[in-house]
């Protein structure tokens, strides 16, 4: 039942995303000029919540635009109605709906759907990960120097030791190919699919990473914080890799 509701809710949000993509809609800013929210984000979230609340009215909700709808339920839905909103607002087709389900403190289901390029990633704990119903797995690359990486940057940060630009610079100066797509959920899924070998980011919210983290681990990868501790949705700093190069990336990230 949870899986069916997750798939239905993801489709509902994606329908709104696709209807508004490349169209006209209202855009406003949140914390900074480029931390955007659009009319489509809000309508996609409303469509997602309507599905979930209809079938599980007592479940805990954590969603980007609405925030927390707390309850005593042991099941939490962690929702990003449109991850990659800046891309979406600029008609760049790297944006998606991302929904994770946490039960008793453990991620058990995750779905990430980009309807513009028709890629639907899904994972259920213990059952592997899929892309459009086909099983996926992380890359087998063991040499970090030959790895292709992806990252993202927060909209603002204070300069400090080991800040995002310093870490990025270390990778680039050693000749590492590093990409930036503008959607953490897609970054994670593309690690799971073996397109990238590793991803890191300094300042994520739970809705950015909850679904994608499970998809990576179920595809055979590894997700931790920057100290190597096991992933939790509330942690801000996330490293996801194929597992083989995880310690190498940790070393570089931590000023190695």
Tags for this model:
globular, alpha+beta, 5-stranded mixed beta sheet, 8-stranded mixed beta sheet, 256 residues
Quick gist of this model?
This protein has seven helices and 15 strands. Helix content is 32%, strand content 26%.
Could you please describe the fold and organization of this structure?
The chain is of the alpha+beta class. The protein has an eight-stranded mixed beta sheet, sandwiched between helices. A hairpin with a 2-residue loop joins strand 6 and strand 7. The chain is globular. The termini are far apart. The mean pLDDT is 94.
Characterize the main sheet: 8 strands, mixed
Count every beta strand, where a strand is a DSSP E run of 2 or more residues.
15
Helix and strand content put the structural class at alpha+beta
User: What is the share of helical residues?
Assistant: 25-40%
Seen as an oligomer or otherwise, the chain set is single chain
Following the backbone from N to C, one meets helices and strands in this order, namely: HEEHEEEHEEEEEEHEHEHEEH
Mean pLDDT: 94
Please give the structural blueprint.
Layout: H1 2-20, E1 27-29, E2 36-38, H2 39-55, E3 60-63, E4 67-69, E5 75-83, H3 85-89, E6 96-103, E7 106-114, E8 119-124, E9 129-131, E10 134-136, E11 149-151, H4 164-173, E12 178-179, H5 184-192, E13 198-201, H6 206-218, E14 222-224, E15 238-241, H7 246-253
Parallel strand pairs: 3-5, 11-12, 11-13
Antiparallel strand pairs: 1-2, 3-4, 5-6, 6-7, 7-8, 8-9, 9-10, 13-15, 14-15
Helix pairs in contact: 1-2, 5-6
């Amino acid at each position: 039942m949870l899986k069916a509701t997750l798939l239905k809710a993801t489709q509902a949000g994606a329908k709104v995303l696709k209807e508004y993509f490349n169209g006209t809609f209202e855009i406003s800013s949140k914390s900074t000029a480029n931390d955007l929210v659009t009319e489509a984000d809000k309508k996609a979230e409303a469509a997602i919540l309507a599905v979930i609340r209809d079938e599980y009215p007592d479940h805990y909700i954590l969603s980007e635009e609405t925030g927390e709808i707390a309850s005593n339920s042991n099941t939490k839905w962690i929702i990003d109605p449109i991850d990659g909103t800046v891309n979406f607002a600029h008609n760049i087709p790297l944006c998606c709906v991302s929904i994770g389900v946490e039960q008793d403190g453990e991620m058990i289901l995750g779905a990430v759907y980009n309807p513009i390029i028709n890629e639907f990633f899904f994972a259920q704990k213990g059952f592997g990960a899929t892309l459009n119903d086909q099983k996926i797995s992380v890359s087998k690359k063991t040499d970090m120097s030959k790895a292709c990486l992806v990252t993202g940057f927060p909209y603002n940060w204070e300069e400090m030791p080991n800040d995002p630009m310093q870490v990025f610079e270390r990778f680039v100066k050693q000749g590492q190919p590093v990409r930036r797509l503008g959607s953490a959920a897609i970054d994670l899924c593309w690690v799971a699919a073996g397109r990238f070998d590793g991803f890191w980011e300094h300042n994520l919210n739970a809705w950015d990473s909850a679904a994608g983290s499970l998809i990576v681990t179920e595809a055979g990868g590894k997700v931790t914080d920057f100290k190597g501790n096991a992933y939790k949705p509330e942690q801000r700093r996330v490293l996801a890799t194929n597992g083989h190069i995880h310690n190498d990336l940790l070393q570089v990230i931590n000023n190695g």
